[in-house]
Amino acid sequence: MSVTRPLPHDSALLHVTGAARYVDDIPTPAGTLHLAFGLSEIAHGRIADLDLSAVHNAPGVVRVMVAADLPFANDVSALAHDEPLLAIDRVHYAGQPVFLVVATSHRAARQAARRARIGYDPLPAILTLDQALAAGSRFEGGPVIWQRGDAAAAIAAAPHQVAGTFDVGGQEHFYLEGQVALALPGDDGMTVQSSTQHPTEIQHKVAEALGVPMHAVRVQTRRMGGGFGGKESQGNALAVACAVAARATGRPCKMRYDRDDDMMITGKRHDFRIDYRAGVDAEGRIMGLDFRHLVRCGWSMDLSLPVADRAMLHADNAYFIPALRIESHRLRTHTQSATAFRGFGGPQGVIGVERVLDHIAHQLGRDPVALRRANFYAAAQPSAPGTPDAIAAAPQETHYGQEVEDFILHDLLTQLEKSSQYAERKARILAWNSTNRTLKRGIALSPVKFGISFTLTHLNQAGALVHVYQDGSIALNHGGTEMGQGLHRKVCQVAAAAFGVAAERVRITATDTGKVPNTSATAASSGADLNGMAVQAACDTIRGRIAAFLAAREDCAAAEVHFADGRVFAGEAELSFEEAVAAAYLARVSLSSTGYYATPKIRWNRVAGRGRPFLYFAYGAAVSEVVIDTLTGENRILRADIIHDAGASLNPALDTGQVEGGYVQGAGWLTTEELIWDDQGRLRTHAPSTYKIPACSDRPAEFNVALWQGENREPTIYRSKAVGEPPLMLGISAWLALSAACAACGPHYPDLRAPATPEAVLAAVTRARGA
Amino acid sequence: MRVTGESPTRSVLDWLRESRAMTGTKEGCNEGDCGACTVIVTDADGSRALNACLLFLPQIHGKALRTIEGIAGPAGALHPVQQAMITHHGSQCGFCTPGIVVSMAAAHLAGRRDHDEVLAGNLCRCTGYAPIIRAAVAAETAPVPGWMRADALALAELAPEPPAEVTGVFVPENADALAAWYAAHPDATLIAGATDAGLWVTKGLRDLDNVAFLNRCKDLQVITLTAEGYRIGAGVTVAQLREAMAEPHPALAELLRRFASEQIRGAATIGGNIANGSPIGDLPPALIALDARLHLRQGAHRRSLAVADFFLDYRKQDRRPGEFVEAVTIPATAPGLACYKLSKRFDQDISAVCGCFNLTIDGSMIASARIAFGGMAGIPKRAQAVEAALIGRTFDEASLDAALPAFALDFAPMSDMRASAQYRLQAARNMALRYIRERRGETASIAECGA
For B171-218, how does the pLDDT look when each residue is reduced to its tens digit (9 = 90+)? Predict the structure, then answer.
């Protein structure tokens, strides 16, 4: 039975009937208390006076806690122990939790929190990249610099130079389900229900806060209403607050952020300023390229270092750049602590070099697609049987020393150019633009090459627990969490394929630190790669035991026992799967096993910026067509064509969903989604009324998505490829198409910023005209 | 629904989730922007999709409420839109899905196929919407399940509910009753659609009492054609006005298409949109450009004034204590009217600038001009200097060029999270240019472009 099937999401029926339970939907025991944080109103200052008497006296308030009331660790950071749950003397951003209200209802807690009177001694706030750079406000001693070759010399020696500065904005996750946690105290310890991508980290932080070993904390996550990286570390505060309050009161405690609080408190995608200088030969090939990344990290370290690293790792995107230097400044500001967001720095790295190519194509008057092809890495050599390796050209190395062995974009682009009718449409648009003065169209193609594996090598491991019950039903747990991506369905398909049964026979229950320990975050697109392999290993163990038992009974070799279509074939015997399982049980064969997987081949020296951080690369490309209104800058995506590489897809329907959703989310990041802080460092766009994610009509009216027909060269789970993050970067084609439309308005380079709001587009139109 | 013994401003969403343990209806934003809490409310006027977060319990008294838990049949049979959402992989994380399914089911019941419009008020962060629209299209031809018609049938058979008896709440049956009560209680809060007042409760965390709910004042919910034009009752919803204006005022109807979302338009009223005095409300600039007359009432005393004169200063209107907006009258026709809404996102966004132009051209000359903008000042404001600079000139771009300096005389807009002052001014001028180009037959709307 082939593993590949376009089965619906495992909870689809529950979703459409409203029966799927999220943390806030779980029935709570009588007496459950509700929590809310009181937040800092200023970006930086000392707390001079904290008058909480009115909070204490508010209706329904049971307890009010400040930092000094916390019994053990006051820390909810991912790594650096620099993020207190409640502020200690000083506040570092507007929105930082200062105190905690425990009350009899969600509304009572929120109402009470607003009654605080906090007096501050304001301190100078560092808000912008320029301010941080000037003040030397940064994480790590100085910039991280990786280089290959002598970029400065190569740029100077090249016939053409292109230089510029490019601002790319951050992005709010806007998971539809806000952050939420529920803690239930029990005599065995604390059980926490959390909407988190990282149950083990919740367990770890709760244990530290309660001063107990990790075995005294159990974290469960059935599903999230969206994550996108925003629930990798940002759920810690709620879970820890609930656990601490539950211990203090002896009652269950629940906390969910109101949407405005969620957006004020939690981190977002890092905004970047990218300075670039490139030297280009007469054919448009980049001879040397120098990047400076200014990364606004916010007030605490969180995951900013690996995010900034990944931006550097993707500064080449799909292009071989012989001399490349990247200088990355991780700047500390008094704003929300920027965090993981789908792509994890990769999108900022990729758009940097795509911007450079956009600029080069404009300056040299070259076709943007031909220019990209000219700079591509060498094509992967087909591993034709009998071909001596020596004959194949050696793969080219990235700037960090990883050989690009699997580069498929030459062929993928050829197919996409054809299916999207790129050349014909480009010609049509040129003609259309010449007869329309008010509206202009643009079309652009952009590729993505995205490295798959956690760059922190030890995270590339996973565990699973599989039970086969005596009736032949199968239950499994693994370390991954379900946030909508369909991971549980894919993993069920893997288990079903291992036993040769229908996927419906397999049940996945909530992710549970009590069942599979020491899990990594469901992040870095790794969910199916890691957990699929771990589940397969566990299934193979059990299947091997059943096979050995049947082989002995039927007098055949264990290797000849095989499982397919709900049947088991051993020698002359044929049994139903249930019969085989029941027989094995009666013969005292263990039908439960753990499974484990650790990604092979990878090694990475972060300080030197050298090694093989990724097991493989995932690829894709998109063509977008847009139209702009040159009077107001309003714009629309008219059509998008995508071919994306999911390897040998485990589930083409779910993978297509990731591609479509990723594209729209990426296009949103670069168009309508604009985060605005005022000059006091207060976020002004903290609700959907002011922060605009794509709405229904913002998707491309014509939207053609196909999966590349191929398989992973690496032995991943059924040769599939990770698909969570890479498609987000396909949205860059929409931004490039907007740049092309602006460029159609005049002779100058439009220097379009991101996000390309109507206002930004109009400014770019004005620049293109040279006005 | 029979509402008793609840706080006057308890939202339907909180009541469902907290008191009834019906958790299929989700809270995504609690401000009417995400649609995760969409429910279907049925009354004598039909069935509407509304946001439960901005709906107070007294508003649904005497009506039928259907939540996601009631979209599948009593025996668990799936509604066609539910089955299509599964078949077409329309859910990923599933959190927005109940609201989306309810919106789709309401549209399916009404036989609608304008899916982008139906779903403009339902945000999804996972799917990119494509599979949701595929599902909506796939379900179009499926028959409406019987249970979806049960609410209207049941209501028709029941005796009308007397008004809800909720402490601190007055529910008038007509405008006379409202006028008498409000004159005696001038400090009270009037709640019509609750799409703005709801935010005082959900976001401002205020507990309102001493409120009147106007939804039972049927005499405020009518549009009549009089000698002066269309007299639009204050209780007419934006959705109703849009439908009524499709023929006589297509430009106004098109502007209203982009007014918030399906769920908000079904609740928000004309009177509320005018009376709250927002500088960025979408209706007032159009009303000013149409030279609409506003009808105010205080007890038995009535007066009328130009809408333009109602807005005095930021959030300050010419409305006396105990006086309320009873109606507004617009001309029967205005063929020269064009309305341009500019926002970061095309659908369901608040205007950065909303420009409304109403010019009459005599031969090649501009005979009259009424121009008004939202988002350009502390109030919706008429562009009198621009009008003066245009009237009597030739209707062409050269005249506009000559009139450009007048924009700065009329407006000194502010910078905020929606747009900078400079951009607002530039866009306002360019809207005038677009008006000329469009009226001269040039394509100037991106909405009309396809690939």
Answer: 999 999 999 999 999 999 999 999 999 999 999 999 988 999 999 999
Cα→Cα distances A289→A326, A352, A395, B147, Å: 8, 11, 21, 65
The answer for residues whose C-beta is within 8 angstroms of residue A78's C-beta and 6 or more apart is: A201, A232, A233, A236, A302, A303
C-alpha distance from residue A204 to each of A207, A213, A513, A729, A749 (Å): 5, 8, 10, 33, 51
Cα–Cα dist A421/A680, whole Å: 49
CB-based contact, B139 to chain A, within 8 Å: no
Q: Which of residues 655-694 of A touch B (CB under 8 A)?
A: 656-657, 660-665, 672, 674, 676, 684-685, 687-690, 692-694
Angle between helices A346-364 and A304-313 (to 10 degrees): 30
Residue A390 has pLDDT above 50, yes or no: no
CB-based burial, A680-702: b 16+ in 10 Å, e otherwise: ebbbebbbbbbbbbbbbbbbbbe
Interface test with B, best of A25, A176, A631 (most B CBs within 10 A): A176
Asked if B260 and B273 count as a contact pair (C-beta separation under 8 A), the reply is no
Whether the model pTM is above 0.80: yes
Number of DSSP helices (H) and strands (E) in chain B, helices first? 17, 17
For A93, the token pair is: 């951003």
List the single residue in B31, B72, B131 with the smallest CB-CB distance to A660: B131
3-state SS assignment for residue B14: helix
Separation between Cα atoms, residue A349 and residue A291, nearest integer Å:
10
Kindly report, residue by residue over A111-147, the tens digit of the pLDDT: 999 999 999 999 999 999 999 999 999 999 899 999 9
Interface size between A and B, measured as CB pairs under 8 A:
271
Q: How far apart are CA A542 and CA A540, in angstroms?
A: 5
Question: What are the tens digits of pLDDT across the range B10-44?
Answer: 999 999 999 999 999 999 999 999 999 999 999 99
ipTM over 0.95: yes
- Compare all CA atoms of chain B with the CA of A631 and give the residue at the minimum distance: B430
Distance from C-alpha of A612 to C-alpha of A435, rounded to nearest angstrom: 51
HEC-encoded secondary structure of A651-702: CHHHHHHHHHHHHHHHHHHCCCCCCCECCCCCECCCCCCCCCCCCHHHCCCE
Using the beta-carbon criterion (under 8 Å), do B69 and A18 form an inter-chain contact?
yes
Output the CA torsion A6→A12→A16→A19 (10° steps).
170
Q: How many residues does chain A have?
A: 771
Helix, strand, coil percentages (3-state) for chain A, rounded to 5, are: 30, 25, 40
Phi, psi of B424 (to 5 degrees): -60, -45
User: What is the Cα–Cα distance from A128 to A676, expressed in whole angstroms?
Assistant: 12
Check if A725 is active-site. yes
Closest CA to B168 of B208, B219, B126, B114: B208
Tens place of pLDDT for every residue, chain B, 451 residues? 988 888 889 999 999 999 999 999 999 999 999 999 999 999 999 999 999 999 999 999 999 999 999 999 999 999 999 999 999 999 999 999 999 999 999 999 999 999 999 999 999 999 999 999 999 999 999 999 999 999 999 999 988 888 777 888 999 999 999 999 999 999 999 999 999 999 999 999 999 889 999 999 999 999 999 999 999 999 999 999 999 999 999 999 999 999 999 999 999 999 999 999 999 989 999 999 999 999 999 999 999 999 999 999 999 999 999 999 999 999 999 999 999 999 999 999 999 999 999 999 999 999 999 999 999 999 999 999 999 999 999 999 999 999 999 999 999 999 999 999 999 999 999 999 999 999 999 988 998 898 8
Q: Which two tokens stand for residue B62?
A: 């005497």
**Residue labelled with tokens 């309401």:** B106
Q: What is the 3-state secondary structure (H, E, C) of A352-375?
A: HHHHHHHHHHHHHCCCHHHHHHHH
Task: Tell me, yes or no, if A110 comes closer than 8 A to chain B by beta carbon.
Answer: yes
